[in-house]
Amino acid sequence: MILVYVETTADGVNEVSLETVTFARKLSAAGGGVPIDAVVVGPAPEGVPAQVAAYGVRTVHHADGDDFDRFSGAATATAVAAAREAAGSVVVMAGGTNRGMDVLARVAARAGVAMAANVVAFGGLSPFVVTRQVVGGAALEEMRLSQRPAVFTVAGHAVEPEPAAEPGTGTLQSLAVELAPEDLLVRVVSAERAAPDQSGSLKSARIVVGAGRGAGGPDGFKGVIELADLLGGSLGVSRVVTSLGWRPHHEQVGQTGSRIAPEVYIPCGISGAIQHWAGCASSKVIIAINTDAEAPMMTKANYAVVGDMHEVVPAINEELRSRRG
Ligand SMILES: Cc1cc2nc3c(=O)[nH]c(=O)nc-3n(C[C@H](O)[C@H](O)[C@H](O)COP(=O)(O)OP(=O)(O)OC[C@H]3O[C@@H](n4cnc5c(N)ncnc54)[C@H](O)[C@@H]3O)c2cc1C
Question: Which pLDDT does position 191 carry in this prediction?
Answer without folding.
Answer: 84
